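Why this split exists: single-chain examples teach little about how molecules sit against one another. For that reason, every record in the complexes split bundles all components of an assembly together and asks for one structure covering all of them. Below is a record exactly as it appears in the raw files.
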Amino acid sequence: MIIILDPAATAAQRDELTSDLKSRGYGIHLSEGVERTIVGVIGAIEQDKSSLVEQFEALPYVERVVPILKPYKLVGKPFKPEGTVINVRGVQIGGGTLCVMAGPCTVESPEMLFETADYVKSVGAHVLRGGAFKPSTSPYSFHGMGEAGLKLLAEARDRTGLPIITEVMDTRDVELVGKYADIFQIGTRNMANYSLLREVGASRKPVMLKRGWASTIEEWLQAAEYIASQGNYEIILCERGIRTFETYTRNTFDINAIPAVKELSHLPIFADPSHATGRRSLVNAVSRGAVATGADGLILETHPNPEKSVKDGAQSLTFDQFGQLMNDIRPIALAVGMKL
Amino acid sequence: MIIILDPAATAAQRDELTSDLKSRGYGIHLSEGVERTIVGVIGAIEQDKSSLVEQFEALPYVERVVPILKPYKLVGKPFKPEGTVINVRGVQIGGGTLCVMAGPCTVESPEMLFETADYVKSVGAHVLRGGAFKPSTSPYSFHGMGEAGLKLLAEARDRTGLPIITEVMDTRDVELVGKYADIFQIGTRNMANYSLLREVGASRKPVMLKRGWASTIEEWLQAAEYIASQGNYEIILCERGIRTFETYTRNTFDINAIPAVKELSHLPIFADPSHATGRRSLVNAVSRGAVATGADGLILETHPNPEKSVKDGAQSLTFDQFGQLMNDIRPIALAVGMKL
Amino acid sequence: MIIILDPAATAAQRDELTSDLKSRGYGIHLSEGVERTIVGVIGAIEQDKSSLVEQFEALPYVERVVPILKPYKLVGKPFKPEGTVINVRGVQIGGGTLCVMAGPCTVESPEMLFETADYVKSVGAHVLRGGAFKPSTSPYSFHGMGEAGLKLLAEARDRTGLPIITEVMDTRDVELVGKYADIFQIGTRNMANYSLLREVGASRKPVMLKRGWASTIEEWLQAAEYIASQGNYEIILCERGIRTFETYTRNTFDINAIPAVKELSHLPIFADPSHATGRRSLVNAVSRGAVATGADGLILETHPNPEKSVKDGAQSLTFDQFGQLMNDIRPIALAVGMKL
Amino acid sequence: MIIILDPAATAAQRDELTSDLKSRGYGIHLSEGVERTIVGVIGAIEQDKSSLVEQFEALPYVERVVPILKPYKLVGKPFKPEGTVINVRGVQIGGGTLCVMAGPCTVESPEMLFETADYVKSVGAHVLRGGAFKPSTSPYSFHGMGEAGLKLLAEARDRTGLPIITEVMDTRDVELVGKYADIFQIGTRNMANYSLLREVGASRKPVMLKRGWASTIEEWLQAAEYIASQGNYEIILCERGIRTFETYTRNTFDINAIPAVKELSHLPIFADPSHATGRRSLVNAVSRGAVATGADGLILETHPNPEKSVKDGAQSLTFDQFGQLMNDIRPIALAVGMKL
């Protein structure tokens, strides 16, 4: 941590600060520049000291505090440079294999779920997605089938062999969802729901952590650190688009985040082109881009009849479109050296 | 709702759509323009039909769907044009009286809490704030004293007579927090935590709902609608700044939201200049601006020793600064015709 | 155009509006819904009537005006569905061939320019880029060599046969730059410099129009329409990243914009991964993504010694890195059916 | 400037860097921390060395470069702590007097201009605004009356005694506009049009510099530095709203910027509530807020018949609304100790 003093800071204030730091056990490195005095603080373990930054910034004679180290550790690249590989019922996530998760936004009925599960399996998807508990912006919208939806997902798994991923939104549901799901999904609205992160961190199931729609990459990795800090290292990050001023698309897909996460963290990184665009017509192209950029996998919405879908119809692919997409990403995965 | 057909839509597709709409019980108003056909859908109650928009946008021959009505009802201005006034232990919120809530970010100890409570009371604040459960970006930071903090807040209330507001973050804590708090606070990270909104909606205590840092005003009002839909109409909205590209301040205070909420909703609207700026030096000016713009109240952080604060030190006012602020907003409140 | 009346609008106001519209020569289509009256305006040519929207929104009894048609025409997809293909000294831009433009941010000296030109040519680039007039955030930074730089670019063209692209920033320089450049570049800061757009529109040279860093896709296409409206249809759009709250990267690369532009416009669309990321370590991955998504080309910064570069050093590739990138995008271009 | 080395940097690399710095004439202050080596660079005049930051960031063994000093000097607070006061034909700008500039968006005819000028003068406005050259997002919209409009503005000045402010958009028009205008206005789209900034900097007329809609406060002050660096210190900054995800308002008014600019710069700071909201119904409230926050002045759009306005109708005040606003801001100006 580096503390930059205000030009008006006095020698007495500088000494007060350095004494305080020494009494807390830090080493001090003082640099008196032409226009500013800079105090280097040596030995600060910044992961557990973010409040220190705020405290020193609160001093009237401090202009700015610059943290030097990353505010996360367990999910940082140096912690496991070889990268995390997760195995879910035989499906490999990370480690050079492209993994595709697909299914409907919401479980609506046995028929539509089984039809979708059969189809996505037939064209090569590896994991079945589907929502039983759904966040909806309006309180009057459908909020999912709940446990009945989870049971149908489990039935679809029995039928197809595909592991299942489904969202959990409430700390009180973690146990229930965990009875059925192979992978927990934490949605964008809950990325900073720290109680929920700790709860899935205490489980021993893989967790897909979607990026908050207005969260920086650093905050996202700190959210992952919450899960890891409870002992669960099987975390899959998922970029699903962020909020910007652009209105033609539902979100702006931050594709930079894919290689950025790869250089900052050892965790696998997925892309969700359905939410990242919000427009079915853009999903194929953006999926190709995500694979070429190095994503470890995709999560996609497909529905037998998007125009009858209770949610996310505009961004769900028809079966034909999903089949086409699976064909289109294959040569790109090969071109970047991934197995599919 | 208005459905704009794609220029390439055929007459058969148009008829299929209108038949479908009629079979769902809607009236139809068809307008054939020079370049587009537009289908007006009459009778759609759009609060509970947001999924309809998505379904029709999913049709390949539909270019765009334009909702006409607001997606909220109970919290909309027409539902209660005279405005909501809330009474908490004799303190009036809304209705032309300026209400100031103040206190430390976090309850740290009895001494600092009581000292702060006494001070804010002495200079005219109406409600005591303080966090017992704290959201922190880092898993390694302090997360609050929990129930011990709630007990201290209750003690501070007994001592000063000030009602207390404190944050609840987990559905499982609503009952516990409700035993002590006079007003629930829902933080920015939980604005779209719909389980939590429903839970505080089922209580009969006032709720302050902070705006999500990347939520539109419309989404914020829909979040309030979640609470109201459970029967709890005592909701206080609070603008606390949104995420933008600007880095000099912690957030960008969207002051436009104050008069915007006043024309869209009957709920009282507060401002949180501490979080909206993240810099103590800007809090006084922005508080003055919020009052002049018509805010029903302010919520502010103050601490006996900001540089020792476990959290939010850089944005907490010293007591002197807080006392000055109370003096500075008084003539402005009078200038806009409010009581203080 | 659709005009939605305020619920409080009277019949007299509605009639006043429809009379006014009829007197301006528009057809009217009136729809009285349960809660709103909607006036469809038929015959409005909205490209030249954007001020109409504002006028009607100014009426106290109008709630909202919804434009139906796109606010651009010449650059819209329906104007030339087969797509624009541009030929610059034998280099094809658009039409299924991937085009790579590369070179230094700024022309610094003959040696570095010729060395770079020779290298990028040797590994397969098609166009040489280099700045002679440079926009700099600081008035004290280097602003380019001016005409001397243009002359060096022309010399590099003679030497390598590569056509050259260079930025023009001032209406007064269009003639001078046009004497040397094969393609004008309009930078992100000047996307809405309408005088400059008109000036390059009046020339008969191709223009690369970079997206404004805070401009929507629609505004970008309207800026292109400025150029086209002067008779110059040889426009290349270039996505170079937009401003968001993310700070790890210099900009957020809006990859959604590539397929979005392809469905809205007939113009070729390029990507600029150097500016879109601002970090050399991310450029290769994002370039691969752009090609896979369907970009017609890339524009990239490379420098013999990035750490000696007078500008944009952190995002400039070394020669080795650029050569590697050319190798890495080739199989991806093939995978999406493009020639390279 | 502080250079943070990569954890993998070798001693040889560190020495190479420090030798390079010494050979450029800088002092070095080396700090070897537990996990990082930090190089303090002493004597760097960072206003003219922004490219240095980029060069050092380009080194493969450098993790990050942290500038310490502000990248502007002439417009910074320490350069003139007492604040800049500008006098335009007897009207004081800055220095504790509130200044209101008002008029139509665009000069449309003598009648409407003179009627507006007479009215705004009668209710106490100090400067007349009006556009003769207008930026329009669409090439097919009205672009202003040009010199004829300037002549009408000059006539309105003769008639009322009010100084006039009008926009200049093209370097080639600076001389012409300067013949008529008392104050140049640089619009939001041209904040980073550096040629234009230099041109008005070379004039000896006051310049109002609007903030770019996606520019940080720091970039805005650097743009002002461009003008000042040419010798023209009579600069008025104007916050007019920035681009965010919020769609209810045209822009988000960054009211934090007002006190932020006051602590960073000595230049007067105005607010433009018309553009900052884009909605007439919000202008009064936001104007009150801007004054209470400490703005030195307001610039506002008013029109005899907003619904006939050729531009910005939805945000222009009627005369009655403008008169009301003048009444409403008076007690607030007094409450914050300003003269009006």
